[in-house]
Amino acid sequence: CELSANPVGRLVLALTGTTSPERVRLSDAVCTALQIVEHLQDVAEDLGRDRIYLPAEDMDRFRVSEADLARPSAGASVRALIAYESTRASELLKEGIPLVGSVDGRLKLLLAGFVGGGRSALAAVSAAGFDVLPGPPKPTKPTMLREVAVVLRRARREG
Question: Which architecture characterizes domain 5-158 according to CATH?
């Protein structure tokens, strides 16, 4: 995340002239969370390309092997690992909400869309019982719009 997702957020801040140390910290939280969400949604697809983006130490902690990830449906240990990583991503998204409230205009809407989209993707993963192996759980448009609205309301209070 430090070398791929986070620099994108920093670049957006630089291009919009809104860079500050606090905004960079908040942007890093959002970008890291979004990359985790993407990796959670794509576990099976990534494995098909000989890639595993779940942290090895967490896989060990939950006793998840590559063979577990290759199954058509997730067992209890894989679901527990995905739930754990989902919580991590959710906390990072929550941490980043003040970033949305610290900017204006299109950038505010863009950031709310990213954070709300991440939150709705995590809701879809949760609704799938954290079984991401059959394919990526996808959020619905109403859920995405609702989450963007929630983010905008919270950002107003916290920003």
Answer: Orthogonal Bundle (1.10)
